[in-house]
TrEMBL record:
Gene Ontology molecular function, alphabetical: catalytic activity
Annotated signal sequence range: none
Superkingdom as given in the UniProt entry: Bacteria
Organism field: Streptomyces rapamycinicus (strain ATCC 29253 / DSM 41530 / NRRL 5491 / AYB-994) (Streptomyces hygroscopicus (strain ATCC 29253))
Organism ancestry: Bacteria, Bacillati, Actinomycetota, Actinomycetes, Kitasatosporales
Record InterPro entries: ClpP/crotonase-like_dom_sf, Enoyl-CoA_hydra/iso
PANTHER family referenced in this protein's UniProt entry, alphabetically: ENOYL-COA HYDRATASE, MITOCHONDRIAL, ENOYL-COA HYDRATASE-RELATED
UniProt GO BP: fatty acid beta-oxidation
CDD domains per the UniProt record, alphabetical: crotonase-like
Protein name according to UniProt: Enoyl-CoA hydratase
Length: 277
């Protein structure tokens, strides 16, 4: 794995721990290039027995993944190419989450900044997630764009927090702080920001140093749930809302008002509510 091969990721590996740093300025939007590169890296790691833990973090302290790139609908040719190579019964966005959920390695998210929409889905797909109390935030912003989560978020949320809180997260479209997310079970733990790096590094190294066979046995005993039917329902719901005029108006209006810029993304919920008015 060499960083020269990727435009949106920094990849390194040491002592059984692969570190994937998301680096797609200005706000780490999840676009087609990042999706393609994540699939390439994670598929390659599936066969790499020297790597036992994967840690995801961000080069931008403010944004882990802001959300799916709001311009992505303009890249239909690339999306069709990604869809053609995705597993059956999942869309291109769900394919990323399912790849993370089914990695043989232990996957850990280190969340220092904000993760909305597809970014929040990414966090929920990982085996574990740890977040900075002062700076991290999680939200499913999609309802304010006239759509519903379409990258596995409905299924991952229900599995982690229960149906009632999943509906709260999706329909309020609020940004949840790290302590609330931890209390809901959305993430494992909220930690002081100055302790986050050391904590995640310690558990990643400790897990990677376990005796042969332990990680495999644990993941075999606690397999990722099968969300096949739920993911198909989610895709139908997402596609039906995305095609409506309201969604197109809100997404284009959001971009005009500064979505996908650092300033606009700091209070994206407020920005999108103003667009809706």
């Amino acid at each position: 794995m060499t960083n020269d091969a990727y435009s949106t990721l920094r990849v390194s590996s040491e002592h059984g721990v692969a570190r994937i740093v998301l680096d797609n300025p200005p706000v780490n939007a999840l676009g087609t290039a990042m999706m393609r590169e994540l699939r390439t890296v994670l598929t390659g790691l599936e066969e790499d027995s020297s790597v036992r833990v994967i840690v995801f973090s961000s080069a931008d302290p403010e944004f882990f993944i802001a959300h799916v790139d709001m311009h992505i609908g303009e890249e239909m040719e690339v999306l069709q190419e990604l869809a053609a190579s995705a597993p059956a019964d999942v869309n291109v966005f769900q394919a990323i989450g399912e790849l993370i959920r089914h990695q043989p390695q232990v996957t850990i998210v280190k969340l220092a900044g904000k993760a909305r929409g597809g970014g929040a889905e990414f966090v929920a797909a990982a085996d574990m997630a740890f977040a900075a109390v002062e700076t991290a935030g999680l939200g499913q912003i999609e309802a304010l764009m006239g759509i519903v989560p379409g990258g596995g978020g409905t299924q991952y949320l229900r599995d982690r927090v229960g149906r009632n809180r999943a509906l709260e997260v999706i329909l309020t479209a609020d940004l949840f702080d790290a302590e609330t997310a931890a209390s809901y079970g959305w993430i494992n733990r909220a930690l002081p920001a100055d302790e986050l790096d050391a904590y995640v590094d310690r558990i990643a190294r400790n897990i990677a140093a376990l005796p042969d066979g332990v990680i495999e046995a644990a993941k075999y005993s606690l397999p990722a749930d099968d969300f096949k039917e739920g993911l198909l329902r989610e895709d139908d719901a997402w596609a039906s809302t995305f095609s409506l005029p309201a969604a197109q108006h809100l997404i284009s209006g959001g971009l005009q008002e500064g979505a996908q810029t650092p300033a606009g993304e700091r209070d994206l919920e407020g920005l999108m509510r103003n667009v809706a008015r």
